[in-house]
Amino acid sequence: MSKNPEPWKARVVSSVTSDSDSAFQISFGDAKYLFNCPENTTRAMLSRKFGFNKYKAIFLSRISNETSGGLPGFLMTLADSGTSDLTVHGPPGLLHFLASARSYLLRDRLKLEASETDTEAPGPIYKDQNVSIYAIPVNPSASNQLINPAPEPGSPSSLKRKHADVYDGAPARKRSSSERASQNGSPQRSQTLIRDDPDAWRKLVVARMFPGTHGITFHSGIDYTVRELRQPLPSWTSRPFATSYLVVGPEFRGKFDAALANSLGVPNGPARRKLTLGENVTLPNGQIITPSMVIGKTTPSASVLVVDCPDPRYIDGLISSTYLKDLLSRQPQHLHCVFHMASQQTMSDPRYVEWMSSLGETVHHIVSNSSVCADEITYPAAEALQKRLSTLDQDIFRVPASKSEAEQSLPSLPPVLKVVTSRRQVIGMRPLLEPENEVILNQFEGDEMLAAVEDRSFKGIKEKVMAELAPSVVQPGDDVSVTCLGTGSAMPGKYRNVSGLLLQIPGSGNVLMDAGEGTWGQLRRNFGDKCDQVLRETKCVFLSHIHGDHHMGISRILAHRRKLSPPPTEPVYLVCTRGTWSYLKEYNELEDLGLDEPSGVRAIFCESLEHRQSPPNAQTMNNVKELCASLQLESVKTAEVVHRTKAFGLILRHSNGWSLTYSGDTKPCQNLVVAGMESTILIHEATMADDQVEMAEEKAHSTIGQAVDIAKRMKVQKLLLTHFSARYPKIPVLGTHGSQLASRSEITIMPEVFIAFDFLNIRLGDFARVERYLPNLEAAFSELQDDVVTTLEQ
C-alpha cells in the first residue's frame, strides 16, 4: 500500500497505421511500463519526446513483427540511454526471439531478465511498489476457426526446415559430433544442455547477451564460451498464444488525522506509528483505538486491462477465462480503462460486444485497429519537413501517403459503453480522468522552420533550373529510379529513418538495398495502395552487414510478402552474409518468412559474390544466373569493405549499359573503388562531417569529403550521399563541397551530387536538375540550428 497518492496515467504510444502498430505505456513519476513494442516504437517515442529513462518492464502479447518487431532496437536504445536493469515478459517464443538476435543485439551494461508465460499464474507475474501485473494467455479456439485462415506464423504446417547450417542457399550436411567438438573445443557441455533443456540454453544465451554490470550466473557453474553460443539454437515450434494483461495500481492509504488522534488521547510516538502500520492501540484508560478511527479511507486500486484479441478465434478463450473473471471480480468497480488490440471482425462479434458490456458502464474502452484508426502520419516533424521540401519539387519530394479519416467507424455498440479509438490518447488513473488526446508541444520544431522556408520560397526554382539546363541526350539508365526509405545512421530519428533504399528498374523489377527497422512502413507511406505490387516486383534484397540498423526491418517485409494474395510466382533473392541468413532462419521458426517456399526466399551469400573470389559453387551460380535474368543484369558482385564487422558493398551492372555501386557502411575503401569503377551512380555513406575525420576512423565510417573523393577515384557520373549522423537530422554540412558543385565548370571531374532525404524519389536522369537545388536547400536551413536529439537524456 502506497503512503503518498502519486499520480499515474496510461497512454497510447502508437496506434495502427501504415507505419506503426499498437503500443501502450503505464507511467508513474519514477517508473514506466511498456505493453508491446512493435516496429518504430523508438521513433514514435522520439517524435513525442517521451524519453527513454525509468523503464522497469516490457510486456509482449505475442511474438510477431506487429507486437515485438521493435524490441531489439528499443533494447539497444534503453541500454545506450543508461538503463541497467530491465524485465521482459511475453508468451512462449520470447527467449527464442531474443536469442535469435545474438549476432547483433549485445549490450553488456544491461541486465535483462526475460520470462515466458504460457499458463495462468496464481499471482502476479510482475510486482513492485507501483503495480501488480497479471497475465491472461489465450489460445485460439479450434471450434471457431476463420474461413480459410492463413497458416499460423511459425506453425508446424508452415515450417519445413530443420536446424542446420545453410550455405549459398542450399542445405549443407549436418556436422558430426567430432566436427562440432573440434570447432567448439567442448563437445558435451553445450550439446547436452541443448538436447536436455533447450529453454535453459536459450535463457543462457540471453543472459550472455545482456550480462549487466553485475555479471551472470551460468548453468551448473560452467563458463560457456562465446564461440559455443554461436551455434544454432534448438529448433522451435511456435504456439499461437495471445496474452492479455491486467495492471493493478497501488492502493493509497488515507491520511492520518492528527487532530482526531489528539481528541481521542492517542499520544505521539510509538502508538501513532502502530496505527499507521495497521495495528490497534490500547490507551491507558483501556480504550481500544483502531486504525480506521484516525486514518482516512483507503483509496482502492485502479486497474487497466490490456487485451490482445487479434481475431474471433481468440474470443471464446478470453471471455470464458475463469482466471480473468476472478481477477476482475476482486475489484469490479476499480477497472477504469481497457485497451483493445482487436480487429474489426472481433469488435463486431456479438460475443465480444456482450463481454465488453459486462465490464461495467463506467469503464473506458480505447480501441486500436486498422479499420477505425485514421492512417495519420506517426512522425509529424518528418511529415512537416517533407511537405516543405515538396514545394521545391513535388516529383522527387513526395508527400507521404496518409488519411485523416478512418476507413470505418466503430461497430454498433451499446450506448452505455465509453469507447474511443486510439490516437495519442492518455487517461488519468490517479486521479481518475476521461481519455483525451495528448498535446504534443513543439512537435514541428517551431514555426520558425516553416517561416524560413517560406521566406526563401521554393516556388519557381524548379522551373528556373529546368530553363537553365541545356538539352541532354538520353543515357542508359536515365529512367531508373532510387527511392530513399531511410537515410539516417545507427538509430531512427524524427526526420530520418535508418537505412533503406529501393532501386526500381522499369520493365525488370526492384532491388531493395538494406532494410532497417521501419522500412516496411516507409514503403507503405511512399507507395500507398501500390505498395503490395512494389513488393511483388522486388526481385532482390541486399543486406550489407549484420548491424541492426541495416536489416532489422527485413523480417516484417518478408512476412508480409509471404501473405500476399495471390502469392508471388517468382522467388526473391536475398544477398546477405551467412550470419544474417542464420538469424533469419531462426526467426523463421517464430513467424513464417517464406524461406522454404518455391517462390519464397533464396539466399546468395555476399562472401560468394566477392568480385575478387573465384566463381562460386554450382548452386550459387544457378541462383545468380536466375537473379540476373529476372532483372536483366549483366552481373551482380559484392566488394568486401572496411567496417567494424564483415560488411559488403553491392555492384550491379545492367545489360543496358548502366551500373550502380552501393557502399553500405565503410571507411574509404580501395576494394570498392576497383569493383565499382566507372559506375553510373555511386550511393555512398557519409555519416560524418569533414571536421570529424577521427571519429569517422574510430567508428569505421566515411565523411562527406571522403565519399566525394571515392566518387572521383571511381570515376562515377552521379553520387548520392546518405547514412547521415543524427548530428545532422535535417541537412548535412557540405562545406567546401557545396562551393565546388556551384563552380562545376572549373572542376570537370566532379560527379553530379545530391543529398538523400527520406522519401526522396530520384531518377538517374534527373541528377543534373536536382543537384542545382542544393544551394537553395542549404540557404533555407542555414539559419536553423539542427536539433541534436536530447530525448535520450530526458
UniProtKB/TrEMBL annotation:
Keyword annotations of the record: Endonuclease, Hydrolase, Metal-binding, Nuclease, tRNA processing, Zinc
Bias (Polar residues): 179-193
Reactions it catalyzes: Endonucleolytic cleavage of RNA, removing extra 3' nucleotides from tRNA precursor, generating 3' termini of tRNAs. A 3'-hydroxy group is left at the tRNA terminus and a 5'-phosphoryl group is left at the trailer molecule
Molecular-function GO terms, alphabetical: 3'-tRNA processing endoribonuclease activity; metal ion binding
The keyword Metal-binding appears for this protein: yes
SUPFAM superfamilies: Metallo-hydrolase/oxidoreductase (SSF56281)
Pfam families referenced in this protein's UniProt entry, alphabetically: Lactamase_B_2, Lactamase_B_4
One Gene Ontology cellular component annotation held by this UniProt entry: mitochondrion
Needed co-factor(s): Zn(2+)
Enzyme Commission designation: 3.1.26.11
Domain tRNase Z endonuclease: from-to ranges: 12-69
Top-level taxon in the UniProt lineage: Eukaryota
The Metallo-beta-lactamase domain, residue ranges: 510-724
Chain spans, region Disordered: 142-195
EC top class, as a word: hydrolase
GO biological process terms, semicolon-separated: mitochondrial tRNA 3'-end processing
InterPro entries: Metallo-B-lactamas, RibonucZ/Hydroxyglut_hydro, RNZ2-like, tRNase_Z_dom
Family: Belongs to the RNase Z family.
PANTHER family tied to this protein: ZINC PHOSPHODIESTERASE ELAC PROTEIN 2 (PTHR12553)
The protein's name in its UniProt record: ribonuclease Z
